[in-house]
Each structure stands twice: as structure tokens, then as C-alpha cells.
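From the shared-data thread, chain only:
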Amino acid sequence: MNTQEAAQVIEAMVRSLQENPAQFHFTVQVTSIGAQGTAYGGGVGMVGIGRDGGTGISASASGGNVKARVVREKANEAAGQQIQELLNHLSAVALELRSPSPDKSKLQKMAEAMKGKLIPDLIVSVVANLISASVGS
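Structure, as C-alpha cells:
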């Protein structure tokens, strides 16, 4: 495989991610840990008594659905940023592969930089293999 073919495959990955960013999705799950007390029509809901200097229950009151919605919105925003960073990174790899004399060391560093991020392992592996196949390992 030559560098132009490798760039073409990476550019196809970029187009695919731009057209359908949800193909790699993240699930955010909000879990309530511990006891939960609910009061209908006002009232306390749950009482905790601390002994020997303990506090009993530490609580905050707010709309749980609101908190979950905010968490979900922030997670979606972060995922969108990660996808955009991935698209930028893949485009930079393709651009380097299309240069008249691609820098093998630079390409290997670019592939290495993808590891340990929220990038699906499949994409990291494909990019690393394309770089290796087109400029050597």
C-alpha cells in the first residue's frame, strides 16, 4: 500500500464520522448510591440520626431529573469535542501521508498520540496499520 492509498482510507473514515458521528457512541449512566427517601406533598422523606459524633445523613435537595439532564448534556458536549478532535487528528494524518515525502517518525508519533484517549481501539489500530503498511514500521 502506498501513502496516497492510506490517506484515501483515512479520509473515508473522516467522511464517515462526519456523516454519522453516532456510530461510535458513549452511554452515560447516572446511579444513585445509598438510601433514597421521597416525600410527597412536602415533608422530610428520610431522617438519619448520627451517634457518637456522626452526622447521620448528609443530603442535598434538588430535582434529580435536572441533574441527570445536565450530566447527560455535558457528556454529549464532551463526546462531540472528542469526535471533533478525532476528525482533526485523522485529517492531519491524511495530510501528512499526502505530503511529497511523509515523515515516518511524525506519523508514528501521531498514531501513538491516539492511544489512551476516547478513540475507539478499532480506529487506532486501523490508522497504525495504515501508517505501517504505507511507510514501514
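The helical segments are 3-19, 64-98, 104-113, 121-135.
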